[in-house]
Automatic annotation (TrEMBL):
Location of this chain's protein in the cell: Endomembrane system
GO biological process, one term: phosphatidylinositol biosynthetic process
One Gene Ontology cellular component annotation held by this UniProt entry: endosome membrane
Protein's name according to its UniProt entry: Protein VAC14 homolog
Main function: Scaffold protein component of the PI(3,5)P2 regulatory complex which regulates both the synthesis and turnover of phosphatidylinositol 3,5-bisphosphate (PtdIns(3,5)P2). Pentamerizes into a star-shaped structure and nucleates the assembly of the complex. The pentamer binds a single copy each of PIKFYVE and FIG4 and coordinates both PIKfyve kinase activity and FIG4 phosphatase activity, being required to maintain normal levels of phosphatidylinositol 3-phosphate (PtdIns(3)P) and phosphatidylinositol 5-phosphate (PtdIns(5)P).
Pfam family, one: Vac14_Fig4_bd
Assembly mode: Forms pentamers. Component of the PI(3,5)P2 regulatory complex/PAS complex, at least composed of PIKFYVE, FIG4 and VAC14. VAC14 nucleates the assembly of the complex and serves as a scaffold by pentamerizing into a star-shaped structure, which can bind a single copy each of PIKFYVE and FIG4 and coordinates their activities. Interacts with NOS1.
Length: 699
């Protein structure tokens, strides 16, 4: 720096001292400047003050020489001290040169610039807020400075600025500050993150500053910071978010929650478990705070809760799952207040449930997800059908086929909930008028699945049918199954299916009411039910015999067995499957279901048709365990009653010969069994032809 230039009002000695590399000499020059400025201020000599500001601000602070810059910076601070309360009149000329040097390449210059701005701000106080945006930008940059001394100096300045803002919050430009915050909140630097969070914390603690109003603009950045691997950052950010949540609880009406909901839903998918948990907690609180206003976002929230609910049952994820379940149940409760009128949907779109989006989510999640999620989806569909039966009706074409497909899912609890939903849909009490259509569609689909997947029928058939009979009227289920199976073209499947239905009918608690009705065929409606079942049960001879034994129609049993014996002797078609079915029936005769039949063997006179029926079964069986079991039972009948004559029909407990057209029933049995015989012959013939063709091809 040339000493020949005029630096008035500075003396040559003061100029040399300011340029000196020794701090003490620069400090002495600064004291001289402070004294000089006090004298100028006392006589209101603003011209000299401005001239001195120009010398220090331009000639010194903007110099290329580092020591000269340091002299200029300490001189500017001295001027502020000398000016005292008059600093406000010269704040621009004092602050701007210092701000430039805060970004200097020389770390010592940055250090002295921080110190200088600290001293100026300490004097000027609220006057520096005019330059707060530039000061904040510089502080943000200095927080990441590689030199610890510079960082220490900037931290002192930072604390002072926070005090000034807090003390002068009434004039602080919060609106202008938010863009600065938003620009820097996505920083990747750990120290810069601490700096940003500390400012948010300070401002939020000031009663007169409503920072929560601007939460939608910075919430995304805060959640991003929450995923920082540094524990201290996580802790600070978590504290800030909790404080904001408390503010929202006190004044939920102040904030535009719509953008925030979308933000927290996005972060509920985070791979960081703590971020995911925090986001789910926020969603739960938002539902509590805003209630039905959240309904337009129900589909996104539902999807998020299901994603979190699918987490593994490990300790770190348990609380996420628990919160997700709370979100799910709370959201489900909101549905209870939704109006179930199709014409009211468009009335107030902003506060209405977007049912179409919810259904889309449910369908997608049901199609491919975890067991727990599938169960949740099915409970949702059931809940919607319970509270919005009219509005959900328009989506049935998409939902119902998927429900039918889910019946084959290899988990009992899923199938149980699926059947519960299906039962709700096809129940006569359902709101829709075409429930019969869905009822028939369900029965047909069930039969089709059983026909295509015999393993499903074998492993899950009884479970599914028992469950649906427990949920709906078992009479309707069996009547409809019987009607469709009577026309079944796959006779082998029809026989197997009737065998399954017969076993359920004879053994399941869910069919108790139907069993009781069938034993009381004196009533017209019960006779009609028996005839409906009998016509179809004829697909399976053993099942038909069991049905007649259940209804105590022993006369018909005898006639069936006579016909049965004829076919056995004529075709010699005694299969292992048939013998197994007879074996099972004999075992069932020893069960509590048939205790009334066994007690009838003690009646006097004994029903000879019953005796003949039991002996007829005995003659079919080889001398197996079942054979000896039934033979032993028959030996228990008192001999005096075995040969007693059958009394006149008017003394028989139930005169089935008059109640039913036995001849027509036997003809139907014979016709259907002839169809089965031809069906088996055709299959065997086709198999032999296929083998012959295959043999020719090989040759």
């Amino acid at each position: 720096m040339s000493m020949d230039r005029d630096y008035a009002p500075l003396s040559a000695a003061c100029v040399r001292a300011l340029n000196d590399k020794m701090y003490d000499k620069r400090k002495a020059a600064a004291l001289e400047i402070e004294k000089m400025v006090k004298e100028f201020a006392a006589v209101h000599n603003s011209m000299q003050i401005r001239r001195l500001l120009k010398v220090l601000g331009s000639d010194f602070s903007m110099s290329k020489n580092a020591n000269t810059k340091k002299g200029g910076l300490i001189g500017l601070a001295a001027m502020a001290v000398g000016l005292g309360k008059d600093t406000v009149n010269y704040i621009d000329d004092l602050i701007i040169p210092i701000l430039v040097n805060l970004n200097d390449a020389d770390l010592k210059v940055r250090y002295y610039a921080s110190e200088s701005l600290y001293n100026v701000s300490k004097v000027a106080r609220s006057a520096v807020l005019k330059h707060f945006p530039d000061i904040f930008k510089s502080l943000s940059k200095l927080s990441t400075d590689p030199d610890q001394n510079v960082k220490n100096a900037s931290e002192l300045l930072d604390r002072l600025m926070k005090d000034i803002v807090t003390d002068n919050s009434n004039i602080f430009d919060l609106v202008g500050f938010i863009p600065l915050l938003r620009e820097r909140i996505y920083t990747e630097n750990t120290f810069a993150k601490q700096f940003i969070i500390s400012w948010i914390t300070v401002l939020d603690d000031v009663p007169s500053i409503d920072l929560v109003i601007y939460l939608p603009e910075i919430l995304d950045g805060l959640f991003k910071m929450l995923s920082d691997p540094t524990f201290e950052i996580k802790k600070m950010c978590d504290a800030v978010l909790k404080k904001f949540l408390d503010d929202l609880h006190r004044h939920p009406e102040k904030v535009d929650y719509t953008d925030m909901i979308n933000t927290i839903v996005i972060y509920s998918y985070s791979t960081d478990e703590f971020v995911q948990y925090t986001a789910m907690c926020w969603i739960k609180e938002f539902i509590d705070m805003y209630g039905s206003n959240i309904l337009p976002f129900a589909s996104n929230i539902l999807k998020a809760s299901m994603a979190s609910n699918s987490n593994q049952d490990i300790e770190s994820q348990i609380r996420i799952k628990q919160t997700a379940k709370l979100v799910n149940s709370t959201l489900m409760e909101l549905i209870n207040g939704v109006e179930d009128k199709i014409d009211a949907i468009e009335k107030d779109e902003g506060k209405n449930l977007d049912l179409a989006s919810v259904i889309t989510v449910l369908i997608k999640e049901l199609g491919g997800s975890t067991i727990e999620t599938k169960i949740t989806v099915l409970k949702w569909i059931y809940h919607l059908f319970t509270h919005l039966p009219n509005r959900i009706l328009m989506y049935m074409e998409s939902i119902f086929p998927l429900l039918l497909t889910t019946l084959s899912y290899p988990n009992e609890e899923v199938v149980q909930n699926d059947l519960k939903v299906i039962a709700k849909i096809i129940s006569p009490s359902a709101a829709q008028t075409n429930n019969k259509q869905y009822f028939d569609q369900f029965i047909l689909s069930l039969l089709k699945q059983f026909s295509c997947d015999r393993t499903l029928l074998k492993d899950r058939g009884q479970f599914i049918i028992r469950q649906i009979c427990g949920l709906l009227n078992s009479n309707d289920i069996y009547r409809t199954l019987s009607t469709f199976l009577l026309e079944e073209n796959n006779l082998k499947f029809a026989s197997v299916m009737i065998g399954t239905l017969n076993t359920i009918l004879l053994t399941s608690p869910e069919l108790y009411h139907l069993r009781t009705q069938l034993r009381d065929v004196e009533k017209q409606e019960n006779r009609e039910m028996f005839l409906c079942l009998f016509r179809t049960w004829c697909h399976n001879p053993v099942a038909a015999v069991a049905l007649c034994l259940l209804t105590q129609n022993y006369f018909l049993v005898c006639k069936l067995l006579q016909t049965f014996h004829y076919y056995i002797s004529a075709s010699m078609d005694v299969t292992i499957d048939l013998l197994i079915e007879v074996d099972k029936l004999i075992q069932l005769l020893e069960s509590p279901i048939f205790i009334y039949l066994r007690m009838e063997l003690l009646e006097e006179p004994v029903n000879q048709y019953l005796i003949k029926a039991l002996y007829g079964l005995l003659m079919i069986m080889p001398q197996s365990d079942a054979f000896h079991l039934l033979r032993h039972r028959l030996k228990c009948i008192p001999h005096s009653r075995m040969g007693s004559e059958m009394p006149a029909s008017e003394n028989v407990k139930k005169d089935f010969k008059e109640m039913f057209d036995t001849s027509t029933m036997l003809n139907h049995f014979t016709t259907l069994q002839e169809k089965h015989r031809n069906y088996r012959m055709n299959i065997n013939s086709n198999q032999q032809i296929d083998k012959a063709i295959a043999k020719i091809d090989i040759q």
